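Fold it.
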Amino acid sequence: MWAVIDTSVYIGHWERGLYADRLDEVRKAFVVRHSAVVLSELRRGARTSQAARIVARLHELARDIWEPTARDWWEAGRIIQTVGYAHDWERSKRRDFQNDALIALTARGHGATLVTANREDFEILSRKLGVGVLVV
């Protein structure tokens, strides 16, 4: 069984020391693969040289990096349009949700479970896409 760990989990773990026990459980139960979108978000958000080194090391160690397909991008646009209008989201929220949709679509495409601390967005995506979500 495969798992993709969301950006929110890495940030909570690295910056606040959260989720250590849950991450151990995930590593025992799943083969962890990395999302190109998550790695990009982590790199973009690295505010210190230490954080940049940690993200670079994670990227180096990533055996397989999964990327969204052209079909995933197309589907993400539909989901963002539907969900964004239903929730009356502003443009900035829709832009943020796009990455979440791409991560979820990529995980679904590989039959992977998505591990996240972002309950709200990924529960919506789980319902819409049928992707397995594990909230830490």
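The radius of gyration is 14 Å.
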